[in-house]
């Protein structure tokens, strides 16, 4: 369970550099760190600290998830455009969305698709990004 919480913390910190704080925004914008932490805290309270529900709530608030189509592969790939593998990353995210799709268990879908996508190179990029952020602090 602690490993799972650490993954959620990694993901939430990564999102500091990427998403929008409103779900219905027509233009995707980068949030401030304060917005991400506020959304994360709200999600923890709403989900009663359940990891899968917290993750889905956070990525939904940040514009990286919809209950209809799962993760937004294009937005996620834009975050890691510096790795010059946007198309490959989009394929991984789309594959994991399809593989884990379960519209009757949305929290599980979000969590399992996240684990699937981060089990390879993308997971290393997330950890690398997070270690850079920790050094900056």
TrEMBL record:
SUPFAM superfamilies hit by this protein: Insect pheromone/odorant-binding proteins
Signal peptide coordinates: 1-24
Keywords noted in UniProt: Signal
Keyword Signal attached: yes
Superkingdom of origin organism: Eukaryota
GO molecular function, one term: odorant binding
Pfam families xrefs: PBP_GOBP (PF01395)
InterPro entries named among the record's database cross-references: PBP/GOBP, PBP_GOBP_sf
Protein name per its UniProtKB record: Odorant-binding protein 99d
Native species: Drosophila melanogaster (Fruit fly)
Gene: Obp99d
């Amino acid at each position: 369970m602690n490993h799972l919480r650490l993954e959620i913390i990694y993901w939430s910190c990564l999102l500091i550099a990427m998403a929008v704080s409103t779900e219905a925004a027509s233009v995707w914008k980068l949030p401030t760190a304060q917005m991400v932490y506020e959304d994360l805290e709200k999600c923890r309270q709403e989900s009663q600290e359940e990891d899968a529900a917290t993750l889905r709530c956070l990525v939904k608030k940040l514009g990286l998830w919809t209950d209809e189509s799962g993760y937004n592969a294009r937005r996620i790939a834009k975050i890691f455009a510096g790795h010059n593998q946007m198309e490959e990353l989009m394929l991984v995210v789309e594959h994991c969305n399809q593989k884990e799709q379960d519209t009757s268990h949305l929290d599980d879908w979000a969590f399992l698709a996240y684990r699937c996508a981060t089990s390879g190179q993308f997971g290393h990029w997330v950890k690398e990004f997070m270690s850079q952020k920790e050094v900056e602090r």
